[in-house]
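ugh ok so i messed up the first submission bc i forgot one of the chains. this is the corrected input, ALL of the components this time, i swear. 886 residues overall. if the numbers dont match what u have on ur side tell me asap before i send this to the collaborators (the ones from the other lab, u know who)
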Amino acid sequence: MALLRVDTQRAYELIKEKITILELGPSAPLDEQRLADELNMGLVPVREALKLLIHDDLVVITERHGLYVTDINLPDLEQLSEMRLSLESLCARLAAQRATSDDIAVLEALRQEQASIPPEDNRRLFDLDHKFHQAIAQAAHNKYLARALEHFFGLSRRLWYLALSDLTFLPAAVEEHLELITAIKTGDADRAEQVMRHHVQNFYAQVQEILAQRGFDG
Amino acid sequence: MTDNNSPQDLVLGIDTGGTYTDGALLEYHSRRTLASYKSLTTKRDFSIGIEAVIEGIRIEDPSAVKMVSISTTLATNAIAEGKGKRVALLLIGYDPDLIASFKMESRFATPHYHYFGGGHDLYGQEKEPLDLPGILSKVSQIKTQVDAIAISGYFSPLNPEHENRACDAVSRICDLPIVLGHQLSTKLGSVERATTAALNASLLAVLRDFIIAVRRAMERRQIDAPLMVVRGDGTLMSDEFAALTPVETIHSGPAASAMGGRFLSRLDDALVVDVGGTTTDLALIEAGQVTVGEEGATVGNYKTAVKAANLLSIALGGDSHITLSRDKKIAIGPERVVPLSYLAWKYPSVQKRIKILARRTWTHADPAWLEYWLLLREPVERDGGLAATPRHKRLIAFLRDGPKPLPEILKHLELLHAAQFNVGELFRQEIIGKAGLTPTDLIHVEGRYTPWDVEAAAVALNAFSRYQFCDPADFRRQVWAQTTETIVRAIITFLSGKRLSQTALSADDMGSWFFANSIRPSHPHLETRFRLRQPIIGIGAPSEIFLKDVADILHTDLILPEFHQVANAVGAIAGSVMVTEEILLYPKMSAERLDVIAYYAQFSDGRQEFESLDDALAYARRLSRERALSAALHSGANNPQVVVEELTDGLDTYRIRAKAVGNPRLTK
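and heres the new structure output, hopefully the right one now
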């Protein structure tokens, strides 16, 4: 794979983070020059980074009005949850069949860290949850599946931040992680798939409710 | 369409040294230097000096610039000043007791090192299973306290499996950048490899931000061209590679000077002596290349596995402070100060004060009156408590209306001696600076180089020599004799590896006598001399004056190519793009370790097994060649040529090294 230019890579990381943590909110217009000034970078890397973010579906370009941060609406959320539900269930199934002892060590480490974090530290808990899902995607040992999920994870991370103030990281979710690990460890593919489906479903139900209350009707 | 008079294929070389940032604009193929510019290095933020240089060189058509290349002391400085990022070093399969018994922990370049089970043996076989749960649990604990992670496994160049597995797992539980030992060095020294990995990790963000700043400066001047970075051996790498292997830029500045000397003089064998403001650096050019040290480069107290030019640097330069030692002998350096001629030229108040010295009596004109302190910048919040004590505040307030001589400063602060007052940090942070008599001032008096105030230099020199009861011309001769002797001694030490003994008995020592008699012939019957076979290429503004007698004493020629003052910047574009790819071949042993049952070919990201050695060798030659070639093309080499070497350590282990070298590819 060709290496990205150093400044483009950095601009990409920084702008993506701004969009994810909603410093650049949904539907916000993007001004290349202003971003370049803020990041203390040239225009070229910022432009290249924005192109990559269009590819990630985090930025949209319109012929008339230029660049915007992709908005968030309920129909999109539904479509996203459909994709994650089916792909992650498949992931959990494959992981139960293929996970190596290294994969399991990673999952265990993430779960232990999660258990050690106080429940009010929402942000860290969700960050670990994100890593946990990524680790299962890796444990499925299918690079196309992992790549597709990475794209959807990028979009759903933004949802957490949007819903963060009203979201509670339920102890049940931590329980589910433990169940998932057990299923994967014992090679119980059916069980793994079932737990994962339930886990993802719950998350989206919660987010959907919060967003509906706030009037994101799309 | 371009006509023949307009320069084509311009390249811009930049060197950020300890004192100056230099730039040179060249026409690549004709080697013609079209313009150069010097600006002061800003240690707080190197990019300021770089932007000044790009601004200062007037480039009529920025689109004609086809490459920018840069050498930098950034990495070296960050290490020496402890300004790298915080690194956790994970050591796999190292023996903590062994490390402790040789007190090698201090060499790891980070206080956060942790030992884990695992590692391989001399035959690339697993010594102990990898303790992955241990590693992950440690990383979970410390990941918020460090900025990067370095991993080094025992014998990882023979088998990097544990490093790779650890990296893969650690990258899934944290977002920190990770550096692996086997990617930086295929040498087997486990401590040097760990140090190199830790230093590389600590420099990643430093070099990345630097490259971003250079790119930004280029864009502001509408320069759209590849950016290359000089390695410590004088070769070039693309900025993307440099961002991944910042540790390879260690010593890139002196290496670039040597390459520049060669490029400008067109000599393939010579000794390059670079006389700067702060230091004089020696390097040897053999067959067109800077000689590379057998051992890895050393920075500060750290021994690394990084290949770098074989260099000797001494603290003597044009701006070295001339002072009196305790026994009233003339001392030159090691401290670098602002020359008085410059200070007087810049500040009329200083000019007046110095001229008054000429009318003072002997006792009121001692050399302390030639030392000035000046305010370089106001302290800011970032400097912390540096300027917080009342005395520090009074000092800064006192210097606000101009530089002051040391005796006045001490009187104002009610002190008897500068040693009573802790100001070292103010100097180090470049809040205040020091000025004094320097070789540069003597050069002004002699009329050989006079950009600044000649009269102030002359008055200062007279005052100093009067205090020493000697004639100013005599004093100057003494200073030059001393610089000459110091440089000659450094050259002989550099080339021979021998030192002059400093003991009291040295008067009876034949080596010391030989050296003294060769510099100052005194024996009635025996004539001795050193002769340097290669010519000396002098680099840097003061080199003509510093090196003329040196070359005479060594019975060789001094060559001062045109534009030698900016040879360091020229050297940044003079190197070739080089990529080295190594494959290790070693035997696979039977279970009882008595018989060789096969051969392994271990390359950076995989391993192959062969029944016969010949097959393994053939495979390694082919693969290393292919990989070096493609990496060189990727790194910006134009039509790279590959040479494959085979080395063996006699233990049935082979090192197949493919080196792909080409000129940098310019944008069309």
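quick check: Chain B has a mean pLDDT of 89. that seems consistent at least. The CA atoms of residues 415 and 421 of chain B lie 8 Å apart.
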